Amino acid sequence: MKVLGIDTSNLVLSVAVVDDKQVLGEYTTNLKKNHSIRLMPAISMLLDELGLAPEELNGIAIAHGPGSYTGVRIGLTTAKSLAWALDIPIIGISSLEAIASNSTYFPGMVSPLVDARRGQVYTACFKNGERMADDRIRLIADWAAELKEANQAVLFLGDDSALHKEVITEALGDLAQFGPVEWNVPRAAFIARVGLQKLEKGEHVDLDTFVPEYLQLAEAESKWLASQKK
Q1: Which residues are paired to 155 by β-bridges?
Q2: Mean pLDDT for each 10-residue chunk of the chain (230 residues)?
Q3: What CA dihedral angle connects 13, 17, 23 and 29, to 10 degrees?
Q4: Is the Cβ–Cβ distance between 133 and 125 less than 8 Å?
Q5: What integer pLDDT is reported at residue 220 of this predicted model?
Q6: Residue 106 phi, psi (nearest 5)
Q7: Which pLDDT value is given to residue 227?
Q8: Pairwise CA distance, residues 200 & 144, whole Å
Q9: Is there a contact between 175 and 153 (Cβ–Cβ < 8 Å)?
Q10: How far apart are CA 60 and CA 195, in angstroms?
Q11: Where are the alpha helices (DSSP H) in the chain?
């Protein structure tokens, strides 16, 4: 079974193909460039390098958020279009879980972070590869205070963790740890591998009803809804 993994939920663009035995190939960049223009050429290039036809794919796994509204929508729309055209199943994977996967063997807690503006972050909590808290949006000050109560070392991951380092270290002191820069980048190979495991169990999402996990409305949507109440 061969599964294509895709992540465009933030600045990172990552695509990979895995099978039951190995990562066949992976392409990842972390640039401020337009995912809508670069994603399909990246997928095409990877498949060409591997000598695979799209029809040889057995499923698609996509990072479905939380993250950038535009980035998540681009990735999900592309993945759904491919799945529909190829008539293959699709699986959604948390963008935060993808970041946390870089530190599966860290002995303490792991908190992936994506900036959500106004002092807020999209975050979750994992330990030994197991989820301890669902994806959520929190004020970083409140989240750091909550994590401090566990009195355990916490590894913060994600490019945006640097934006909140001062608040985190003020709350947690020596309990706060920050990984090397390469751990901050989600890998499509992880997304594809988890997707493959789920597909082998017969799990997949309904293509027609599959939507992004934004955790909050876009600012424009919030303003529009507020205007309708007046």
Answers
A1: 110, 177
A2: 97 97 96 93 98 98 95 96 98 97 93 96 95 96 97 97 97 96 96 96 94 70 42
A3: -10
A4: yes
A5: 39
A6: -65, 130
A7: 47
A8: 37
A9: yes
A10: 7
A11: 35-50, 69-86, 95-100, 140-148, 165-172, 188-200, 219-228
What whole-number distance in Å separates Cα of residue 22 and Cα of residue 120? 37
Q: For 90-148, how does the pLDDT look when each residue is reduced to its tens digit (9 = 90+)?
A: 999 999 999 999 998 899 999 999 999 999 999 999 999 899 999 999 999 999 999 99
| pLDDT reported for residue 226 | 42
Phi/psi at 114 (5° precision):
-130, 125
Q: Which of 169, 50, 161, 57 is nearest to 99 (CA)?
A: 161
Q: Which residue in 29, 98, 33 sits closest to 62, CA to CA?
A: 98
Contact 95, 10 (CB under 8 A): yes
Record the tokens describing residue 90, joined without a space.
């699709």
**Residue found under tokens 């909140």:** 164
Q: Which residues pair with 12 in a beta bridge?
A: 30
Q: What is the pLDDT of residue 136?
A: 95
Burial of 224 (0-12, 13-18, 19+ CB in 10 A): exposed
